[in-house]
């Protein structure tokens, strides 16, 4: 810590793993990126049809950071609630599973029950003169007859509230609420169609999902729900995608987009360039439904300087200009491929700062440290 | 359309021809085969004699290509074939074909009417027979080849179409698949190397003529490639598979050599060329195990072994390559 103070810093602002979004509250994107992304998102907000955006960039180009920035800085102003996924799985019900686990069974059941209670009137749903809290009401469902009655009433209320016109889907959601008494958490088999006790209507995954989106919008009192899925093509990680799985992957994406079109669901995906190209090859008509695509550009030299300054400013003990503790021209000694990649740049600076501290340097850190760090992390030219 | 072509080993074909040249007008089928087996020519990798069907197809291929004839049940080399001298020049056996022998066989194939009708006419777009490999490379165009199934008849199909064109031929049946895919395509790509191919998801095989021995220097191609890049500001981003395929078609070079240029850039200019890697499992999504290697052919690999789907190239590479070329000269 003392060594860092010598550098004028409270902490090392360059995370060594360079993944994750530890600094998203001090989130900084190059102005050009911000402007372009805000423009695309505003266009989506004011358009009808699929609200689908795909962010395309290589590993380490900033895809995850951009998704989190959108979720925390942009969508709230549009009254859109975000849910973040990575590696959602190939099958559609994997998505429902992960979404509901994020929301939480008890929280969803309570919120849904309270909302229906307001819509449908206390006595009818509760069966009591004195209003009960949700937990108290759950405790009254002691026998099967009472539970079945409660399910029936809730299902009717769901239909009355315009959440679902399908009897079976309404029933399944009612069961989500009522069965919370015994199991206040989800299990994977709850979302596998045709498995015993499943909460998903058979062959109605898409309709079920649409209802889920409507329920969330109503109970959260927002104008929309956003799914942000990072590295969508990596659903295959750990698996070889055979023909059936590749087909499942495409079907899942198609269903997501269909739901996005019919409900106020935003689908914002990140993909590598090859993920996008391969998806296009597997199903060009699907890719065309992504009305907006944002390809992350390489950082310009000026943007690289601004990125480093933004991170340093968050860690400085006292305000300072420039790139201190690094020299003002320090980034120029780095290769273009390092300066233009957020991940590479941050990794090299972490290494350089650490090395400099170990060697007892005082600011400005010699440029030599950056070259050494760069060479260690990304070895130089090798003639084949 | 005569679909006699089957998978055969062209090294074996040449060595069978040597026997017929040594014993003109003396040998019947069984005698030719016996000598070939004794000399370890008509044998598999395990050293055991090839099966009767395979032995038959080797003999028949030589006959149908016109390299030998059967007169009164005995084999005679066809002295009218100009390639015979080249093919019979080298007396050693068990060695891979050299460039001259590959060219000789390729020329024989290209002049053959049946091979033209089944395969080469699609490359030539209705123009007449190519005279030789040179002519084929300069006049031939890339094609796409796709294997499928006729759902109504329940039989396999092979479709060939001109790339960027409307002309298409569909052939049905096992014979067609054997003749086109396992026969001619394999002959030209795998053994005689005057056609190369790449397999792409959603497209099938793209096949195109290449030089057996490239008359262009890779250094010249390299500089040309860099000049083809479209820079947006300081950087150009290309999908390696597409870029390599287009360059290979343009310069009539094997995909592997052009891909080698990109891999060379990644290791020689790490400051100017950035790899965008991808997951191998996703590249090969939906492909049967036997075809995965063909799909991966179009992807470079960085020194760490990861597959590179795209590269980002800085515009300074053009001047560096020019400098390098000047130093070499």
Would you write up a description of this structure?
The complex is a heterodimer of chains A (384) and B (329). By secondary structure, chain A is an alpha/beta fold. Helices cover 52% and strands 8% of the residues of chain A. Chain A has helices at residues 2-6, 31-45, 63-74, 92-103, 105-120, 122-126, 134-139, 144-160, 167-178, 205-220, 243-262, 273-282, 284-288, 301-315, 336-339, 342-358, 367-377, and strands at residues 51-56, 80-86, 224-230, 265-271, 292-295. A five-stranded parallel β-sheet of chain A has the order 2-3-4-1-5, sandwiched between helices. The model of chain A has no long low-confidence stretch (mean pLDDT 82). Chain B has helices at residues 10-22, 29-38, 52-64, 84-89, 99-111, 113-124, 133-139, 174-191, 218-228, 240-251, 255-268, 280-283, 292-296, 316-328; strands spanning 68-71, 74-77, 143-150, 155-162, 168-172, 195-200, 204-209, 235-239, 273-278, 300-301, 307-314. Chain B has a five-stranded antiparallel β-sheet with strand order 5-4-3-7-6. In chain B, strands 8, 9, 10 and 11 form a four-stranded antiparallel β-sheet that branches. In chain B, α1 packs across α2 (29-38) and α9 (218-228) runs antiparallel to α14. The mean pLDDT of chain B is 92. Classes of the chains: A alpha/beta (384), B alpha+beta (329). Chains A and B meet through α11, α12 and α15 of A and β8, α11, β9, α12 and β11 of B.
Short note summarizing the structure:
Chain A is α/β, with parallel strands linked by helices and 384 residues long. Helices cover 52% and strands 8% of the residues of chain A. By secondary structure, chain B is α+β, with helices and mostly antiparallel strands.
Query: Mean pLDDT of chain B, rounded to whole units?
Result: 92
Give the biggest beta sheet of chain B.
5 strands, antiparallel
Strand order of the largest sheet of chain A: 2-3-4-1-5
Provide the β-strand percentage band of chain A.
5-15%
Question: Stretches of chain A where pLDDT falls below 50 for ≥5 residues?
Answer: none
Radius of gyration of chain B, in angstroms, nearest whole number: 22 Å
Relative helix content of chain B = 40-55%
Shape of chain A: elongated
* Order of helix and strand elements from N to C terminus of chain A: HHEHEHHHHHHHEHEHHEHHHH
Q: How would you name the oligomeric state of the polypeptide chains in this document?
A: heterodimer
Order of helices and strands of chain B: HHHEEHHHHEEEHEEHEHHEHHEEH
Number of strands of chain A: 5
Mean pLDDT of chain A: 82
* DSSP strand count of chain B: 11
Global outline of chain B: globular
The largest sheet of chain A, given as strand count, sense and whether it forms a barrel, is:
5 strands, parallel
Spatial gap, N to C terminus of chain A: 44 Å
**Distance N terminus to C terminus of chain B?**
52 Å
The helix content of chain A, as a percent range, equals 40-55%
Instruction: Compute the number of helices of chain B.
Output: 14
